[in-house]
């Protein structure tokens, strides 16, 4: 057994591995014993214990079952804290508010927003990040899972009112094989048919009439309070001060007024899906 001395304070992953090892040894189990109970290899268990491999949701749930852990102090909860810690600063807090918002207004550039992505589209984006060496395969899988979790907001009761304006670049940027893009465009058309949604495309021809240059999301909570979310390359920023959010809401209304109607926008998407000019 390759046993490293881990400092639990070194990182969340080290704390996870140290706790896993401590519980295993308290039971008198070898790594092979835990591996058999969790249905993983002993090599995988060793890698997680020693901090060489980050834990995944599936592994965490398997560990909870193996140790019979329930309630608040589970490995799944610890994993989710690690995952949120690896996300862009400010994003986990935004996702929490997004899941409870009464109204969601979003504008996106270059890529279909997470709330509207198909699993295959999300997987291609995550896999491309793996190929660039930015994240591990397991983290890519969790990103796709997070996209699916966020989309539960579309079917909760009552559902939020969602307005989505997509820059034309979102539609024309190829992601994955043609079949992936075709299914993604079909998903957009299905999204537009929902009773609680409005979908518009901001074509390149809008030019300077487009009030936003970067993606933005505006949330209206059940108490009618407003907040906006935007990202830089380093962090996400959740803004709650109405002095800054209200002008963005006004600009969003201008964007919707300038953009083609939903019917016209769906026609644009349908033409791209069929491959017509």
UniProtKB/TrEMBL annotation:
Alphabetical list of Gene3D superfamilies matching this protein: lambda repressor-like DNA-binding domains
Where does the HTH cro/C1-type domain start and stop, copy by copy?
Answer: 20-75
Task: Read off the InterPro entries from this record.
Answer: Cro/C1-type_HTH, DUF5753, Lambda_DNA-bd_dom_sf
Q: What's the superkingdom here?
A: Bacteria
Q: Which GO terms fall under molecular function for this chain's record?
A: DNA binding
User: Can you name this protein?
Assistant: Helix-turn-helix domain protein
Q: What is the lineage of its organism?
A: Bacteria, Bacillati, Actinomycetota, Actinomycetes, Kitasatosporales
């Amino acid at each position: 057994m390759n046993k490293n001395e881990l400092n639990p304070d070194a990182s969340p992953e080290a704390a996870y591995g140290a706790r896993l090892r401590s519980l295993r040894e308290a039971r008198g189990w070898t790594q092979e014993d835990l591996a058999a109970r969790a249905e993983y290899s002993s090599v995988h268990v060793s890698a997680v214990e020693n901090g060489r491999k980050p834990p995944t949701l599936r592994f965490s749930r398997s560990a909870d079952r193996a140790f019979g852990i329930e309630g608040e102090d589970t490995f799944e909860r610890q994993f989710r804290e690690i995952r949120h810690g690896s996300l862009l600063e400010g994003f986990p807090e935004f996702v929490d508010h997004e899941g409870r918002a009464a109204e969601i207004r979003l504008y996106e550039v270059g890529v279909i927003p997470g709330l509207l992505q198909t699993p295959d589209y999300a997987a291609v984006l995550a896999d491309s990040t793996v190929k660039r060496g930015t994240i591990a395969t397991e983290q890519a899988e969790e990103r796709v899972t997070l996209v699916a979790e966020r989309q539960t907001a579309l079917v909760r009761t009552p559902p939020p009112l969602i307005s989505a304006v997509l820059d034309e670049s979102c539609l024309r940027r190829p992601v994955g094989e043609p079949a992936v893009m075709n299914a993604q465009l079909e998903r957009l058309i299905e999204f537009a048919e929902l009773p609680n949604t409005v979908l518009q495309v901001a074509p390149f021809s809008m030019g300077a009439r487009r009030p936003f240059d970067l993606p933005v999301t505006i949330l209206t909570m059940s108490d009618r309070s407003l907040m906006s979310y935007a990202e830089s390359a380093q962090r996400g920023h959740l803004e709650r001060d109405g002095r800054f959010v209200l002008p963005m809401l006004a600009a969003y209304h201008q964007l919707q007024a300038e953009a083609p109607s939903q019917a016209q926008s769906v026609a644009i998407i349908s033409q791209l899906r069929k491959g017509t000019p």
